[in-house]
Amino acid sequence: MLTLVVRFVLLMSWVTVRFIPKQSIRKYIPVTILASLITVTVSFIGVHYEFWEVKGGAKKRLWNILTIVIGIFPLGCLWIFHLTFGKFWLYVLANFLNNIIYAYPIVSVLEKIKFIKYKKFNRMSHILVTMTYSLLLYKYQMFLTPITKNQEK
């Protein structure tokens, strides 16, 4: 039951997208989709190589992973890019704080409710991996920005 509540809360966080301007959504949706693809790929690789364990049967595991991948992660990506793109060090700081908050208090709660459990992966590994791909995402958005500027004219 608690897992269902967590899923609901993660998906309901999408209500906040109403506060992001449509222009920002259009500008950052490609990088958000890439972030989601990376997250789902890393999630399934992590389960396969037992870096972490997603509790439950196959159906429950899939729902737990998808809740995170289509729930809070893409929304966080949209918000972080909307608020920080063009200010690299602010972007790095926002991602670092976001990753620390996820890696420590949030993962601890998710482990207690048997949503996910780190096995061969630890919290520092999580921060290193996510910071690495957040830098790749920033570079990707820098590549896209001239294209989107030309399309807006």
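Above is the first protein from milestone M3; the second protein from the same milestone is given next.
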Amino acid sequence: MHQGVSLLLDNPVYVIGSAAPADLVLGDADVAEQHVRLRFSVEHVAIEALGGDVTVFDSLGQRRVVNVGHGQRISLPVELLVGQSRLCLRSTRSARAIPAVSRRLVLLKWPALAALLLLVTCATAFAFRAPAESARHSIADPVPGSSVPGKNAPTLSQARSWLEGALQDARLTQLRIEEQGGQLSVEGAFPAAQKSSWLQIQQAFDTRFGQHIVLTPNVQASAAIAAPRVRFQAVWFGRNPYVIDEHGKRVYPGALLPDNWRLESIEGNQVRLVRGDERFAFTL
């Protein structure tokens, strides 16, 4: 396809890259296989840099860079630089002069999630991972495991509760969940060996809540953290929790431990330690 081509994006999440399994494939230079993930929500889009940096120009012309492993939620319209490709995203809500698009949105009943993608630089190759019709779902044929927009929409509290449970089950409790503007973000670092666990959680969240709540990841894989050289003989989880160290002394949250570790908290079934940006949890 050539420059100036426009496409209607009527799914809540798209991955753009240079090869499958990206949803949209670009053949321009400097585009990673899975370069960026876009999550649409009402008049906003969450931009997640997966395989390369993404340059963003907002409606005021202000420039910012979303580095690999980070995300940014921004209002539409917006322009993106993905490698050598320039992509323009705008909401179809303002496109009243395009009746064909409006009718299409009414039929799909997804006016808040649809966006128009305009390729304004040379796109030497462009393809869909699957036929457009197979990726589109109507009210009569909802996505398994997801809710119909406008009906039984999950709350932010429900989404956060599910995410907290998923992180705990995957032993990723060092990651922090933040709320902002009715959306969620996850921040922190995890061992490289747990990257697949994090990706599975992210995909499961998209399936359950992606049509209503945006999850912006500000996480990165780090080198494996060696287990702290501490020994606990017992743990008290009751009122004023504490641990009994190897010398038989009570140690309360906030106390310093060997190798500059600090006892951060004792709650649930975990004893959590922190050292700078490093976090370690003993699960009992």
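Note on the second protein: Helices lie at 99-108, 132-135, 156-169, 195-209.
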